[in-house]
Amino acid sequence: MLERGELASSWRRERWDSLRLLTPNWQSRLPGLAYDGGDPDGYMTAAEVAELIERFAQSARAPVRTRTDVTSLVCAGDDGYRLTTEDGEIRARTVVIASGGCNLPAVPPFAGAVPEGVEQITPLRYRNPDQLADGGVLVVGASATGVQLAAEIRRSGRAVTMAVGEHVRLPRTYRGRDVLWWMDASGVWDQRHDEVEDLSRARRLPSPQLVGTPERATLDLNALVALGVELVGRWASVRDGVALFSGGLRNVCSLADLKMNRLLGSFDEWANASGSDTPLDARERFAPTEPPASPRWQLDLRSGEIRTILWATGFRPDYRWLDVPVLDARDQLRHRGGVVASPGLYALGLPVLRRRRSTFLCGIEDDAREVIGELGAYLGGGSPVGGGQP
């Protein structure tokens, strides 16, 4: 097992200070290592996640080679693959790519047209509001990261504007249970990749608007507006130093509300049909999102109103080291359930790899068991399922 930095390096070095997992502690488990602390409904900090990974590596006796950066992986004919690392060359008949899908910030090209006097930062570099310049902050993106950082920065006393595109709205709790309990118990997370109608879209869905706090608070756009955050539409372009926003904010919010209510309705149907013994509160519905009646459609970035832009626009994988023709036009790995489109090459830890729960800590065990089953069949001369097409 090759790790480019120290064990759990990204959790130690690439997370903001206040970050907590979106999943409750009882869901944050690894194979053979369930949560055994005193706060099962709480949410782990980044440091606690790093400690969990370290304990798992020790309990599994995983042969991890830390500070071993892979700079190239190429086909080696019938011998499998050749990996070049800072410590020399490695040959392997099979390789599992478990580098994840969140290695690089996905910043739009027009970021280059932002005036030089405005600082630009991504969540990989952000730690806390104290590092930001005094003055207004434009947070771009309204998924989990965006809403969390917008709230934190607003509470620091800065004026915050948020550019809102497609997002997934969810309450933190529903009928007395964490909303992710419902996702787990009702079977939503167990939907397999070959059962999803539009798999490509499912793999691109933004993370839901959730935050892990002791009071299990809901953090949606209405909560941000109550804090004093100004909402504008999706940032479309920059022209002569002026940021231009789309006019579809109300439609985007209405669509997110519709999808949330549809999901909550499916939870109600499951609860009625399952006859679950778990005590549940009465059915709930939530107030619709209320964006401003006339949101601004442009903002002059030369005026000094905005001193910092925080790009909470998601992440993308980094496959610059992968010299095998297995990437699609979006530079995403071509695979079917983790079986990559090259014999003996496999993947783990990507969105909806085998199931909707694939990118959660509690989702890796089933994925890993099935993908390694494919790998074992390949080494044994069997016919692995898949073929590598998405």
Fold topology:
Blueprint: H1 9-13, H2 46-60, E1 70-75, E2 81-85, E3 88-92, E4 95-97, E5 104-105, E6 119-121, E7 136-140, H3 144-155, E8 160-163, E9 173-174, E10 177-178, H4 179-185, H5 199-204, H6 221-227, E11 230-232, E12 235-239, E13 242-245, H7 249-274, E14 298-300, E15 306-311, E16 315-316, E17 335-336, E18 339-340, E19 345-347, H8 364-379
Parallel strand pairs: 4-19, 6-15, 7-8, 7-15, 8-11
Antiparallel strand pairs: 1-2, 2-3, 5-16, 9-10, 12-13, 13-14, 17-18
Give a nutshell description of this structure.
This protein is of the alpha/beta class. It has two domains: 9-103 and 316-379, FAD/NAD(P)-binding domain; 106-314, FAD/NAD(P)-binding domain, CATH 3.50.50.60.
Molecular structure report:
With 390 residues, this protein is of the alpha/beta class. 24% of the residues lie in helices and 17% in strands. The protein has eight helices and 19 strands. A five-stranded parallel β-sheet has the order 6-15-7-8-11, with helices on one face. The protein is globular and about 65 Å long. 33% of the residues are buried. Mean pLDDT is 93; it is low at 385-390.
Biggest β-sheet, characterized?
A: 5 strands, parallel
Number of helices: 8
User: What is the CATH C level class of the largest domain, in words?
Assistant: Alpha Beta
Number of domains: 2
Beta-strand content bin: 15-25%
Radius of gyration: 22 Å
Using DSSP, what is the number of strands? 19
Give the CATH superfamily of the largest domain.
Answer: FAD/NAD(P)-binding domain
Shape: globular
Structural class: alpha/beta
CATH topology heading of the largest domain = FAD/NAD(P)-binding domain
Tell me what the CATH architecture of the largest domain is. Answer: 3-Layer(bba) Sandwich
- Separation of termini? 26 Å
- Please, what is the average pLDDT? 93
Low confidence ranges: 385-390
